[in-house]
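Sample intake sheet
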Amino acid sequence: MQRSTLETLQAADLDLLIVGGGIIGCGVARDAALRGFKVGLVECEDFGAGTTSRSTRLIHGGLRYLELLDFDLVRSDMREREILLHIAPHLVRPLPFLIPMYGWPLWKRLRLRVGMVLYDLLSYDKSLPWHRFLSRRDTLRAEPRLNPRRLKGAAKYWDAQVEFPERLALANALGAAEHGALLSNHTTADSFARENGRVVGVVARDLCTGQVGPIRARLTINATGPWLDRSLAGVEDGGAPLLRTTKGVHLVVPPLSRNAILLIAESDNRVFFVVPWLGYSMVGTTDTDYRDDPTVAQADPLDVSYLLRETESTFPEASRSTVYYSMAGVRALVRKDGIRKESQVSRKHTIRDHARVGGPEGLVSVVGGKITAYRLIAEEVTDLAARRLGCPSRSPTACAPLPGGNAPPEVLAAKLEPRAAALQLNDAALRHLVGLYGSRADGVLAIAEGDARLAEPICPHGPSIAAQALYAVREEAATTLADVLLRRTPVGLAACLAMDCLDRVAQLVGGAAGWNAARRDDEIAAYRKLVSERYAAPLSAAG
């Protein structure tokens, strides 16, 4: 996939123009392109760089939504979880969860049993195991770092994890491009273009070249997530906000558990998780109202203090854990008056056809939504677009594998093992490649086979190899150093945040992209600035 230029998008006769390249925008692009529509997409930063990259990285029905009696949402997400396990087995994998029970009275344990049964029944067609309950001894055997005091046992159930949702967004972008979509990251939509009251596209700015100009389309899809209300300024002037935006913070700490652990905060009864991730534990998330620009969302000392304090009661060593870094993202929730508590706001999405509510023709907005449901949301949006454009068609995305997802990872690893061995790659490196690229790991190995030095690790803190940096530039439209380190590979998500290998990766990427020395220095400086702003781990309020 090559990055589309502003000129290419302007010259195209687009049916759909999508604004926003998060998981939902990329999903819409793929669905529409697979149905034969001429599709364009602009994203102001990079595919999956916004809320998608700052989530808890789970593909789940949401056990806590049963308490809200949101059975339709849970059932729908369970079905989507099963679909993703089949169409993207390299990116979405089963994950066991434990719910430890500390001093729970009998009525509370019985309520959990009912909830577990309901959760299984709502996913009756799943391939994952059904729940079971563990004794106190078996719970501590499964998780020896748990606080044993007052522990009565645990419930064990299964959901799924997408360790790298950035690549799930990218896989959808790649799939869209393979079917003719034109996608441009680092291109911002400055405003919606209007003629005679109708939205006919956007006025776009290519941040790489500085060029500005209109991109026209028969229908424009606004998939800007938590930036939605801001993007609609001038389109629905005076209208009530469509979103309630809340901040979610995660901390990355040394490993605490083998399984994902669902915990209930003692201070406010909120659900949060301790999840094994990339050899670390991810702790989160918070859920607090947030009204500023989502671009500048950060963890603050109170967020860190809250998560460490609540985790410490279950994992005593959490109080002594190093916080390597934090991530803060902003959720886009459908605004509903009368709900005071943030965590009680539904995660259901809505699709707003602006012409149906007195707004301009030619514009459709996606309001809310979660990663688990992205494919279904994309299908609904494209169904609406097909009706509006007079081209009814059915979505193939529930069955069509995402790029790289056409075979189970273990089958692919066995097939590629002789080539990996010839390059002296160990099992961890091969599993890493197959887990990121699926069948497309073949292309990464081919680059390394052309120069054995490219089979060497990029960073001592992870299994990524140098060939991945070149592959990101050549095949995956990586344009900046951050694109490569944070969204094509997980090198920048190690404890060192890639600071130990930054110069080397800049040399690799710069060589592949044709950067001069000044551009290389600028990219290094921009990456350092981004990391300091987005991933800083402030001292807790107590620290």
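Comment: The CA atoms of residues 146 and 456 lie 38 Å apart. Residues 92-161+243-344 form a domain with the D-Amino Acid Oxidase; Chain A, domain 2 fold (CATH 3.30.9.10).
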